[in-house]
Amino acid sequence: MKILLLEDDIQFQESVCEYLQMLGYDVDCASDGQKACDLIASNFYHLFILDIKVPKISGHEVIKYIKNLNLNTPIMITTSLVDIDDMAIGYELGCNEYLKKPFELAELKFRVAELMRKYYSVDDKNVIKLNGGFEFNTSKRVLQKDGALIDLSAKETDLVECLVSHLNMYVSMDELREFVWGDKEIDGADIRMHVLKIRQKTSNEFITSKRRVGYKING
């Protein structure tokens, strides 16, 4: 599970980042709002943890940017601001959680785990529950149903992992070529064949498709 952390206090940023990584999360860090927006534009995240009073672009403006991209990714605000108006603005813009500084790292752990559970049905932080009763373990990179392992090839596993990392979002053919095949020469028929084989091993509804849009797996 991937998290973007926006925090301009470098020492505190490093502390929070290291703690989240110790918990098993993949974390990108930004020290100003512009850097955060740049990262959001080029990466997929499962959670945004945003400070408000940061250089260049405020955390509130970053939330507006996220919403303009039509992302449904959960957002947690971490700030020392105590004015109720600032909290109200954050919630009105679409944040899902508020954590007032200073906070204990253990509290952050539980807040993050709860958001992951709520939005991605994640009980074990490495296990993502998918439609049809399937589960994907992001640490072991295995797909299971009712405890039974689904026998996927290496490339089929890469493809499922890519779609799971973009859960509930369509991934285009070009994006699949980049993420799964590294922009190697592979035509659409080959990608469709890989999808067909995965469906044969799971169900016809496991991977959904939309013409000229791409493929997705729903949680």
Automatic annotation (TrEMBL):
Q: Which PROSITE patterns match?
A: OMPR_PHOB, RESPONSE_REGULATORY
GO molecular function ontology, one term from the record: transcription cis-regulatory region binding
Question: Could you state one GO cellular component term attached to this entry?
Answer: protein-DNA complex
Q: Which UniProt keywords apply?
A: DNA-binding, Phosphoprotein, Transcription, Transcription regulation, Two-component regulatory system
Instruction: Return the InterPro entries for the record.
Output: CheY-like_superfamily (IPR011006), OmpR/PhoB-type_DNA-bd (IPR001867), Sig_transdc_resp-reg_receiver (IPR001789), WalR-like (IPR039420), WH-like_DNA-bd_sf (IPR036388)
Residue stretches in coiled coil:
none
Tell me which domain of life the UniProt entry assigns to the organism this sequence originates from: Bacteria
User: Which biological process terms from the Gene Ontology are attached to this UniProt entry?
Assistant: regulation of DNA-templated transcription
The portions of this protein that span the membrane are: none
Residues bearing 4-aspartylphosphate are D51
Ranges of the DNA-binding region feature: 125-219
Keyword Acyltransferase attached:
no
What SMART domains is this protein classified in? REC, Trans_reg_C
Residues in OmpR/PhoB-type domain copies: 125-219
Q: Which PANTHER family match?
A: REGULATOR OF RPOS, TWO-COMPONENT RESPONSE REGULATOR ORR33
What is the official name of this protein in its record? Response regulator transcription factor
Organism, scientific name = Campylobacter californiensis
